[in-house]
Write a structure and sequence with these properties.
By secondary structure, this protein is of the alpha+beta class. 48% of the residues lie in helices and 25% in strands. It is built from seven helices and nine strands. The strands form three sheets. The chain has a five-stranded mixed sheet, covered by helices on one side. The longest helix has 36 residues. The chain is extended and about 90 Å long. The protein binds adenosine-5'-diphosphate. Adenosine-5'-diphosphate binds next to helix 4 and helix 7. It is found in: Cell membrane; Membrane raft.
């Protein structure tokens, strides 16, 4: 608490009492801490690939460039690290835009068409990992929404399902129409998420397993972006998961975005 006080005087200027005002600053302190943690996380995440780029460049300049096999190996690593850096910067920009509540470009969009587009991008990855990727649609799936943003949401969720499911697993995407709503879900037979972690995975940079997430190319920002975008669409998101069995991420969208 932060306390401020002021005397209360009568019309002769004599003290009658004191007013104490208590400001609850716990919420402010918490927000300030979240902001500080975020800056520390961003700095750390940026520093790691830059340090590695610098190290490899120095070694190349010191003579390693004369040995073609070593040079190629180092350049490949540097290329991968730059990609990571680029992805991280893109995710940070996307998150910042989403947090500022930028204007959505609303149109009637078919969620089924968007999912088909996403599958074109992600099917090769599923095949490479030996994961059976299936898609089932029930009813009409037209909603009012921003197609580009919704595509980003689906890419993130389906990509996660593929990342956190071992080879030989299954990923099932469903779209289902009901009275006023369209429900999207993606279920995987992957590693699952502990109950106490589920509420945290939407936090910026929160990862259950940092190493695993990095190896799969994750920035730890995907679900934070997803949550903002879904909420911007007045949609809802639920997660059901069991460790060792798999996870289901469900999104519920209203067909009409503006009127209700
Ligand atoms: P990342 O880039 O690390 O995947 P996300 O924000 O997309 O970042 O997800 C945050 C964390 O939530 C992940 O690091 C992972 O631990 C967990 N997670 C997300 N999706 C799944 C899933 N389908 N199965 C298991 N864990 C998941």
């Amino acid at each position: 608490f932060d306390v401020s006080s002021a005397p209360v005087l009568n019309n002769l200027g004599k003290l009658r009492g004191i007013v104490l005002v208590f400001h609850d600053i716990t919420e402010l302190k918490k927000l300030e801490q979240i902001r500080k943690d975020f800056v520390a996380n961003v700095s750390h995440e940026l520093k790691t690939p830059v340090t590695s780029l610098k190290g490899f460049a120095e070694t190349l300049l010191d003579g390693a460039a004369d040995q073609p096999d070593i040079r190629d190996k180092f350049l490949t690593i540097m290329w991968k690290e730059s990609e990571r850096l680029q992805l991280l910067i893109q995710d940070l920009l996307d998150l910042s835009k989403a947090e500022q509540g930028y204007a959505l470009e609303l149109q009637e969009v078919s969620l089924a068409t968007i999912v088909e587009e996403v599958l074109l991008i992600l099917e090769p990855k599923a095949e490479e990992k030996g994961i059976a990727l299936k898609f089932a649609v029930e009813g009409a799936t037209t909603v009012e929404g921003d197609g580009q943003r919704l595509k980003q949401v689906f890419i993130n969720l389906i990509n996660n399902a593929l990342n956190y499911t071992p080879a030989g697993g299954r990923v099932l995407i469903r779209l289902k129409e009901s009275a006023e709503k369209v429900t999207f879900s993606v279920s995987d037979t992957g590693i699952g998420i502990k109950k106490e972690e589920i509420s945290r995975i939407f936090e910026r940079f929160y990862r259950v397993d940092k190493g695993r997430s990095r190896n799969s190319g994750g920035t730890g920002l995907g679900l934070a972006i997803v949550k903002h975008l879904v909420e911007a669409h007045h949609g809802r998101i639920h997660v059901k998961s069991k460790v060792g069995e798999g996870s289901t991420f469900t999104l519920v969208f209203r067909k009409k975005f503006t009127n209700n």
